[in-house]
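ok trying this again, last paste got cut off
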Amino acid sequence: LFTKGNHDITGPGAAEVYNRRLVPFMAARAGDRIEGAAFTRERSGTLLVFYDAYDRRSLDWLEGVLQQQKPRRLVFIIHPPVVPYNARNTWHVFSHPRQADEGQRLLELLGTCRAIVLSGHLHKYSFLVRRTQNGRFVQLGLSSVAGSDDAHPRDLIEDISGYGPDLAKLVPRHSRQTEPQGRA
């Protein structure tokens, strides 16, 4: 099973192909009903949420699922990160300033559940803990790009002291026009 990524919906007809081909593929593999990119699976008190970051209705859907199921443990699977963590710090879910309330709402839902968040999108590994007013959660950023089986990390940043405005310079050739926003 997998979650929808930005390249799954890029280009004319891509979203329709995702729904027509990939959703039924996952349902067949799961041996269960899956009707869209947002769905859940439960096992032994752990709720796995596959979140569709590209559907505006997903946040309301998630809130309803959590109210109804009240999971003991939550694993939240999403393509873009929830918490930005590298130079591409504008590439996270609800990253636009007018989506700040939605972003905060998602953070609080995840904190309430003390979730484990699995994300991708940035092609960098990351592990972080995010505190919210309702609790904290962890986010693990996974990478699909490795130069070799024994590749070593580049741009290693540890502890909160490594985070700050200079992260925007780690990828200087990338999105230079967003550097001021990233530094802020």
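PB: full thing came through this time. The longest helix spans residues 14-30.
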